[in-house]
Amino acid sequence: MHDETATPERIRATLAGHLARARDRSRALTECVDDRDLIAQHSPLMSPLVWDLAHIGNQEELWLVRDVGGRAPLRRDIDDLYDAFQHARSARPSLPLLDPGEARGYVGQVREMTWDVLDRSPLAGRRLERDGFAFAMIAQHEQQHDETMLATHQLRSGTPVLTAAPAPGAVVDVAGEVTLPGGEFELGTSTHPWALDNERPAHRVSLPPFVIDAAPVTNARYLEFIADGGYDRPELWSTRGWAHRSDESLEAPQFWERDTSGTWWRRVFGVMTPVNPRQPVTHVCYFEAQAFARWAGGRLPTEAEWEFAARWDPATGRSRRFPWGDAEPTAEHANLGQRHLEPAEVGAYPGGASPSGVHQLIGDVWEWTSSDFRPYPGFAAFPYREYSEVFFGGDYRVLRGGSFGTDPVVCRSTFRNWDHPIRRQIFAGFRCARDV
């Protein structure tokens, strides 16, 4: 919600809806498997699903029950266990974690207390409560972990357990590039009440003209890169990228397999399916995206260029909230919220295109940018350093736009995701840019 005239009652109802939707998704992602699957570590890159579940409850208790609500701790004894900075993901299975029944009971108790806190909060006063920020932060936190749990399901072996309606097929033809004029515009936000600290403050930046792909790079185009020896040509890769490609023997996106006839298949939540040439490529790391861009005669966009493409309105010259305008995303605009279990084909969301003709900037796949994860000028950590500040200056690249697994409460054109350039388990693709 971004309506400055909204009453506390409307804000409270909206927040309740976001919290309930997040919890429904958390349940769906954890109740579709048995307890053995919940406590298993399906990849050293990921936590056991039961850790994510209890961590969701612990963050909610810390911020909403204890801080906003002023209530006594429910389970102070587990704070360290579910502090993401205390234990590496690979070490979490060895911790004395809550078992699945205890975890479900705990998050349920916390949520019952949260409803009471939400009913009583004035949604005003100190910054943490103003416009319901703390409640929105927790809804976003849970949805971010839900997307992480969805990625864990993709890494999981065994009988497929997730189902969803198929993503829509292509509606309009989208190809080629779009030239954007650049100029001064406002990057980030200082007005969205639920924006997180690294999106702030809004500030003016100046960009030269540039060209950007009208759509994310498709599987068809990526197959051309593979067929042209893209994984065997060191001149296309950065020094670090080529070393990583060689060390890991990369030859295709993660979860792709080629059969004896030369046909490529992709594993999607345990189901093998032929690679769809019209879908955006996904499960590629930054280095793969960078190599493809060089092969294609371009580069990856900066995050400022990406946000300009997503927010700049040529009619008014101002920065809008989304490519299509200021209205919240709907099913007509973007592939979000795990409605489907895969990216939609390019051209499936013409209602979400920018006025300049750039499509599918929101949803489907996170898009790698060339930008390091850095603070904006005037950045101030809020409400805690560990959300953003401790990651600045590390080996992280910014991703933009959200994926099919990202919930609308998280997905803003100003939202900044980040990860190591070697990561492929996330639902990430890319589009290319170049100088004019």
Keywords:
4-stranded mixed β-sheet; single chain; 436 residues; 3-stranded antiparallel β-sheet; alpha+beta; Four Helix Bundle (Hemerythrin (Met), subunit A); 11% strand; 12 strands; 30% helix; paralog of FGE (formylglycine-generating enzyme)
Can you walk through the features of this model?
The chain is of the alpha+beta class and 436 residues long. It folds into two domains: 8-155, Four Helix Bundle (Hemerythrin (Met), subunit A) (Up-down Bundle), CATH 1.20.120; 164-436, paralog of FGE (formylglycine-generating enzyme) (Alpha-Beta Complex). The chain has helices at 8-31, 35-39, 49-68, 100-120, 133-155, 219-227, 239-248, 286-295, 303-311, and strands at 177-180, 183-187, 203-207, 210-213, 256-258, 264-268, 271-274, 366-372, 397-400, 417-419, 428-429, 433-435. Strands 10-9-8-11 form a four-stranded mixed β-sheet. Strand 5 and strand 6 form a beta hairpin. Helix 3 runs antiparallel to helix 5 (133-155) and helix 7 crosses helix 8. The chain is globular. The relative contact order is 0.14. The mean pLDDT is 97.
